[in-house]
Amino acid sequence: MSTAPCEDLVVDALGKACPVPVIDLAKAISGVAVGGCVVVLADDPGAKVDIPVWCRMKHHELVAVDHDGERFSFRVRRRQ
Q1: What SS3 state is found at 11?
Q2: Domain range list for the chain
Q3: What tens digit of pLDDT does each residue of 9-63 get?
Q4: Res 4 pLDDT > 70
Q5: DSSP string covering 22-78, please?
Q6: Is cis: bond before 21, omega within 30 of 0?
Q7: Backbone CA torsion sign across 60, 54, 76, 67
Q8: Using an 8 Å Cβ cutoff, are 75 and 67 in contact?
Q9: Helix (H, G, I), strand (E, B) or coil at 18
């Protein structure tokens, strides 16, 4: 994972069940330039598996995953 900073587009998927956080990420990533980031806020437990897998499948970089209790924050850098 890269530590280089990037500007963030925040997607609030709190309260949304699987697969909506990934769908919201997929829609949002096209709205940032290559090298830019999308931060997905989610509290669905499935997101902690689904988002990293989606990043690998779509060749985007999972920069960071943070969690605070049941809430997660996923920072994804657009690679293509």
Answers
A1: strand
A2: 8-77
A3: 999 999 999 999 999 999 999 999 999 999 999 999 999 999 999 999 999 999 9
A4: no
A5: HHHHHHHHTTS-TT-EEEEEE--TTHHHHHHHHHHHHT-EEEEEEEETTEEEEEEE-
A6: no
A7: negative
A8: no
A9: coil
Length of the chain: 80
pLDDT of the residue at 66 = 96
CATH number of 8-77: 3.30.110.40
Query: Hey, which residues are catalytic here?
Result: 18
- pLDDT-derived band at 7, boundaries 50, 70, 90: low
What are the structure tokens assigned to 23, written together?
């769908």
CA distance 32 to 41: 17
